Amino acid sequence: MTEHTAPRSLDLLAGKVVLVTGASRGIGAAASRLFAREGAAVVLAARSTDALDTLVTDIRSTGGTADAVALDLADPASIRAAVDHVDTLHGRLDGAFNNGAAIQQPGPLDTTSDEDVETQFAVNFRGHWIAMNAEAALMRRSGGGSIVNTSSIGSRRANPALPAYGAMKRALNSITETAAVTWAPEGIRVNGITPGGTETEMIGEWEAATPGITEQINASVPLGRMARPEEVAEVAAWLLSDRASMVTGASIPVDGGAGA
Fold first, then answer.
1. For a surface tag, which of 15, 24, 94, 120 has the fewest beta carbons within 10 Å of its beta carbon?
2. How far apart are CA 108 and CA 91, in angstroms?
């Protein structure tokens, strides 16, 4: 894939119903477009319903199938309601890309606020825990499915700048592996991806709080640049597809070699 040319569709997700959380921007929005191009009926979930409506219109305008549902990952009832909405729309769920997240205020461990820790727990850990259980319950009805969780390169090593974020993402890696082993007999695969620096609004917010971080991230990547959201989405699409039928319990780096 070049800087300006997207790969042709392979129908990786043809006939599948896929839920995407955190779909309103960044990796989630790129994944939503890609999954639809690959043949999935996508249900897009996020707090920003205006952004979702625009994305749904864009996908439908190119012949894709898309719907939107409001979702607040800090609210367990909202998560369960979103999965119930998928059931109402399609009667089944084949894939879920749990991509929604909250970023903490960058800073060292001893200055991270209690509020930041609570938000990180609620969104980046508990929200995924609840979503995975609700998604798996719906997948069981049709004989299985695939779940992909977005973790972070910061979950695989010390994370002095984002300590609470890194801690909750490491916990997410653990429940990803546990769910993979627990649900394998039911035909439900569970994997994670651990992106490095990616050109998203989240990085822009971090740059505003810590000027120079973008240059620092680029310099740390052996390939010499951050990932584009579309590049991260490609890995999630493969994991959700039947091409990855023997892959479960894995955490796939998408970091240009930064974690090597």
1. 15
2. 46
Which amino acid appears at position 92 of this protein? R
Q: Mean pLDDT in the chain?
A: 94
The number of C-alpha atoms within 13 Å of 103 and in the hemisphere containing its C-beta is 15
Q: Rounded CA gap, 187 and 95, in Å?
A: 12
Residue 90 to residue 113: CA distance in whole angstroms = 42
Catalytic residues: 165
Interval 15-53: pLDDT, tens: 999 999 999 999 999 999 999 999 999 999 999 889 999
**Residue scoring higher pLDDT (199 or 82):** 82
Q: What gap in Å lies between CA 96 and CA 148, rounded to an integer?
A: 6
**Distance from C-alpha of 167 to C-alpha of 154, rounded to nearest angstrom:** 8
Domain 17-254 has CATH 3.40.50.720: yes
Where along the chain do its domains lie? 17-254
Structure confidence by residue, pLDDT tens digits, 139-185: 999 999 999 999 999 999 999 989 999 999 999 999 999 999 999 99
- Kindly state the tokens that stand for 152: 């972070």
User: How far apart are alpha carbons 224 and 192 in whole angstroms?
Assistant: 24
Task: For residue 170, count CB atoms less than 10 angstroms from its CB and return exposed for 0-12, middle for 13-18, buried for 19 or more.
Answer: middle
The answer to whether residues 21 and 97 touch, using CB atoms and an 8 Å cutoff, is yes
pTM of the complete model: 0.93
Axis-axis angle for helices 127-140, 76-90 (nearest 10)? 30
**DSSP 3-state of 70:** strand
